[in-house]
Design brief:
mainly alpha; 82% helix; elongated
């Protein structure tokens, strides 16, 4: 159990900065400069956070509902 949490914390805190771009964003960046590339990469990473937050919230509420049902039985 603790081993899993150690791995999760390791990957969260020691992950390298990842920059990703779609094909259209890459074309814009190639025409722009370094500042434009950093802005687009930051925007992409910002948008990637929301699906994880939604899934995490759904799992939390399902767990809480399951926990309440198991306590009432």
């Amino acid at each position: 159990m603790y081993k899993r949490w150690i791995y999760i914390l390791f990957f969260l805190f020691f992950a390298q900065v990842i920059s990703a771009q779609c094909a259209m964003c890459r074309a814009v960046v190639e025409q722009g400069g370094e500042e434009a590339a950093e802005g687009i990469n930051s925007g992409i990473i910002y948008l990637m956070i929301f699906p994880y937050l939604i899934i995490g919230a759904a799992i939390f509420f399902l767990y809480r509902s399951w926990k309440k049902r198991s306590q009432t039985k």
